[in-house]
Design goal:
Length: 381
């Protein structure tokens, strides 16, 4: 491949990774771009998991052999089968300079290969009908991160030393792309995470609730929302300081997460201040009410605060048509407001109260009529 074509391949690889949405797309783009650039038929991107002592495959692209899934759930290899991971990537590279790629063939090391490190790879090449491969270490933040592997089929021209040199350049581009993808993932995570508790935030709830209500309207999927207000936070802040108040919020966040685990796939979130919620998509209304009941019980046992006021609204209960996320939120919020007014130690569930209950009046009314309730919902829709 001429210099101009190789430069174009490098640019295409960088652009492909920059355009990726999420880690999986970035991994696929890295492997596919390197495969094209090196004229390979197959490529894989793997990460070195130090704590588990293994090389785990993230993605396989191109002509995959039997057992090579595109995104394997658990295709991994013990590090002792690939000594270069611990020795070449970790020890020798640490002495300075950048790690170079190398070539191996189905007959053994090629020119520029690494003698002594061929047995497992040679066996794998033969077993999968491949004639040669080039292995490029990937270094991220100054540490060995994993490797880029590109292979050609048996009978195709064997990789040369110049291909290994080019693979070293490609690995550096891949490392930069992975670093960018990880930064973007972190930004996305922070954008949807409450900094104090580590739970989801209001933005995350809004997105998932909109999706859930759409699913409910499309196929009747049960959507349940548990909204709760942590009692006594202001008093804790006023009498014991905000650091203690933050500790109460964190502890309640842990309780909420624990109770959310009773509902498969539930989203536990802090809406802001002393307001929290659980959003469940799929579990029945009874399951949501049971989780809310457990939440009230555990919150009452916390050494700080005064328990929690909890309201539940579920499309699995007789609450009328739910055509918008705002409607379900208002119903759960009204139930929580009722629980707070009653100083209830158990959740109030919309649709399960008597006809004279304020929550039932809201169920029967498409909009909030009571001025006090209207104030309660201000800014939440």
């Amino acid at each position: 491949m001429g210099e101009d074509k190789r430069l174009a391949a490098v640019v295409a690889l960088a652009q492909g990774m920059a355009a990726a949405h999420g880690s999986h797309e970035a991994w696929r783009s890295a492997a596919a771009g390197a495969c094209r650039a090196l004229g390979g038929s197959f490529a894989a991107l793997s990460v070195w998991e130090r704590e588990l002592g293994r090389l785990r495959v993230l993605v396989n692209v191109g002509e995959r052999a039997e057992g090579e899934d595109e995104f394997p759930e658990d295709e991994s290899y013990p590090v002792h089968q690939f000594p270069e991971i611990t020795e070449f990537l970790h020890e020798r590279w640490a002495g300075g300079g950048e790690p170079d790629a190398w070539v191996e063939t189905a007959q053994g090391p090629a020119a520029g290969g690494r003698p002594g490190y061929v047995h497992q790879r040679v066996a794998a090449l033969r077993r999968r009908g491949r004639g040669s491969c080039v292995v490029a270490p990937i270094v991220l933040h100054g540490r060995a991160w994993g490797e880029l592997y590109v292979a050609r089929p048996a009978g195709a021209p064997v990789f040369k030393r110049s291909d290994a040199d080019f693979a070293t350049v490609l690995a550096a581009v891949v490392a930069a792309g992975i670093a960018q993808a990880e930064r973007l993932e972190e930004v996305r995570r922070l954008a949807y995470t409450d900094a104090l508790t580590g739970l989801a935030n209001r933005r995350a709830v809004d997105v998932k609730l909109d999706e859930a209500v759409e699913a409910h309207r499309a196929d009747g999927t049960v959507v349940s929302l548990v909204v709760c207000d942590l009692n006594g936070l202001k008093q804790v802040n006023d009498t014991r300081g905000h650091a203690v108040g933050d500790r109460l919020l964190e502890r309640f966040g842990s309780v909420l997460s624990l109770c959310g685990a009773m509902l498969p796939g539930a989203l536990a979130a802090r809406l802001g201040g002393d307001e929290f919620c659980l959003l469940a998509v799929g579990p029945s209304a009874d399951e949501a009410a049971k989780a809310a009941d457990e939440l009230c019980r555990r919150a009452a046992e916390l050494e700080l605060g005064e328990g929690v006021a909890c309201g539940v609204a579920s499309t699995g209960d007789p609450i009328g048509p739910v055509r918008s996320a705002r409607r379900l939120f208002r119903l759960a919020d009204a139930a929580q407001y009722r629980a707070k007014a009653l100083r209830a130690d158990r959740p109030v569930v919309a649709g399960r109260e008597g006809p004279d209950d304020p929550v039932m009046r809201l169920v029967d009314t498409p909009s909030v009529q009571d001025p006090a309730e209207r104030r309660q919902f201000r800014g939440r829709g």
